[in-house]
Amino acid sequence: MEALIRVIVDPLNTLLWSHVLIYVLIGIGLILTLATGFVQFVGFRYSFRSFRRIDDAGISPMQAFATGLASRVGTGNIAGVATAIALGGPGAVFWMWVTALVGMASAFTESTLAQIYKERHPDGTFRGGPAYYIQRGLGSRGWGIAFALSLILTFGLVFNAVQANAISDTLHVAYGWDKMAIGAVLVVLSGGVIFGGLRRIGTVAEWMVPLMALAYLCVAVYAIVAHVEQVPRLFALILRSAFGLEPAVGGVIGYSVMQALQLGVKRGLFSNEAGMGSAPNAAATATTPHPVSQGLLQMLGVFIDTIVICSCTAFIILLSGVLVPGTEMKGAALTQAAVTAHIGRAGTTFMSFAVFFFAFSSIIGNYAYAEGNVEFIRRNRTLVHVFRVLVLVMVMFGSVASVPLVWDMADVSMGFMALINLGAIFLLRRHAVAAWRDFHGQMKRGVNQPTFDCAVLPDGGARLPSDVWPGGGRANPGDLPPPKPRRAAARDAV
Predict the structure, then answer these.
(1) How confident is the model at residue 368 (pLDDT cuts 50, 70, 90)?
(2) What integer is the mean pLDDT of 348-357?
(3) Alpha carbon of residue 480 to chain centroid
(4) Which positions ≥6 away from 144 have C-beta within 8 Å?
(5) How far apart are CA 240 and CA 93, in angstroms?
(6) Which long-range contacts (CB under 8 A, 24 or more apart) does 252-260 make?
(7) Can you tell me the distance from the alpha carbon of 225 to that of 482, in angstroms, rounded to the nearest whole number?
(8) Is the pLDDT assigned to residue 58 strictly greater than 70?
(9) To which H or E segment does residue 121 belong?
């Protein structure tokens, strides 16, 4: 059975991740960069002003940002970067940086759209994301459901099994702990958070993610300070390797430019999720006076994930001396060996806890995304509780099993999810651009806290719920005007 599934899954993974998605993600990222007037640079300084709490009764901007970062920051920051360097050379790091800088525009656009098209939940919080802006903005509930199903499968179930597997494997290898016992503890911890609702998810992520990232950053800073004389040569190595001008580390055969490019882009995108359509689900939950505020925060999340945390992993590895020709180490094992080389045997213990916090925070963030999409398909309390139980079942399954097949299946599902979302943000980009120009204009006029009115949108907010933003149109999705013909919609999006 597994062999039959792989006959289908493996070619699709190769097609999506080696050919289609890399170029579509970068291409649309560049288009959005130009359309927004380089928002990742112009708007970066505004990002830090968006953390302020607006309404204690809702999800704060900081909590929504932390939930989004919790899902972005995971084992990919430890294992993904190490694999990219081991297989693609130090140059892969450069292409990860490029991918992040371009992807920041995509992250800004999708999260701003999520805020624009969010809907009010009966408990007073908000829900939103690609499924919502596809249904309202493009008038297609069918494609919205298709996106929601792919995200539920990928993030809600399979990815949580993968994250639980990373925790159990690390603790089992480091301390010999029983995987079943580890799984039981993870189920209890995860259940306590996810049955507490989105407010508890936001509260936990708000303190866990900064603490986790800070500890990992401290190890990287120590490694850099201890080898500060090598840092200039390290940057030169990364740049030369990115363009095929550097031989393999200590060897005579250089890494190919295309290999470094593909691995850098693929692992960068897997880590920061810019354009994937995942983080907008967290962005939509925030209570904020202007949708652009959360777009800027989620854009900042991409910067922190890749430019900061992924770079930490790269520096730790490249300054450790453990990356030698012929080594079979890659993934988390390579990062663990590098950390141990820097700080001694304590590195094994530190990495065990680092993987736990990175992976557990991803379980929290992944669930938050999936719950919003379950409720998009059908808002039913019993259905949500059944889904929560399924999530816990997958956490236990991932703790005790090897999951390479389900990981590959998730890659396919995530690939289709990304393609649906990228098409949507491309067609709806004029709305995000209009909101950005309104926000930027208010900031330039000296407005300390810009507010949003739907009148600035190209359609005047006719497709928005009337109880979210001033000037919004219809609250009932059934009252939405019919979608434009495909050619007209594409023409108007230009």
Answers:
(1) confident
(2) 81
(3) 30
(4) 130, 131, 132, 134, 135, 376
(5) 11
(6) 254/89, 255/88, 255/89, 255/91, 257/91, 259/87, 259/88, 259/89, 260/88, 260/89, 260/91, 260/92, 260/94, 260/95
(7) 60
(8) no
(9) none
- pLDDT at residue 275, as a whole number: 82
pTM tops 0.70: yes
Are the beta carbons of 442 and 292 closer than 8 angstroms? no
Measured CA to CA, the distance from residue 477 to residue 150 in angstroms comes to 22
Please state, in angstroms and rounded to a whole number, the distance separating the CA atoms of residues 413 and 159: 11
Q: What domains are defined for the chain?
A: 2-447 (1.20.1740)
Helix (H, G, I), strand (E, B), or coil: what is residue 120?
Answer: strand
Closest to 139 measured CA to CA, from 483, 492, 379, 486: 483
Taking CA atoms, 179 is separated from 158, 175, 194, 419, in Å, by 18, 11, 22, 36
Q: Supply 257's token pair.
A: 């430019």
| Residue 477's pLDDT band (cuts 50, 70, 90) | very low
Share of the chain above pLDDT 70, in %: 82
Residue 487 reports pLDDT greater than 60: no
What is the average per-residue pLDDT within 298-315?
89
Phi then psi for residue 374, to 5 deg, are: -60, -45
Q: Average pLDDT, stretch 325-344?
A: 76
- Which stretch of DSSP H or E encloses residue 196? none
- How does pLDDT run across 449-472, given as a tens digit for each residue? 899 999 999 988 888 887 888 776
Residue 285's closest CA among 365, 188, 196? Answer: 365
Number of H helices, E strands in the chain: 24, 2
CA distance 18 to 426: 22
Please check the confidence at residue 50 and state whether its pLDDT lies above 70.
no
Find out whether 128 and 54 touch, Cβ atoms under 8 Å: no
CA 14 to chain centre: 21
One DSSP character per residue, 142-193 reads: HHHHHHHHHHIIIIIIIHHHHHHHHHHHHHHHHH---HHHHHHHHHHHHHHH
**Residue 369 clears pLDDT 60, i.e. is over it:** yes
Residue 89: strand, helix, or coil: coil
Alpha carbons 157 and 362: distance in angstroms, whole number:
12
Q: Rounded CA gap, 25 and 45, in Å?
A: 25
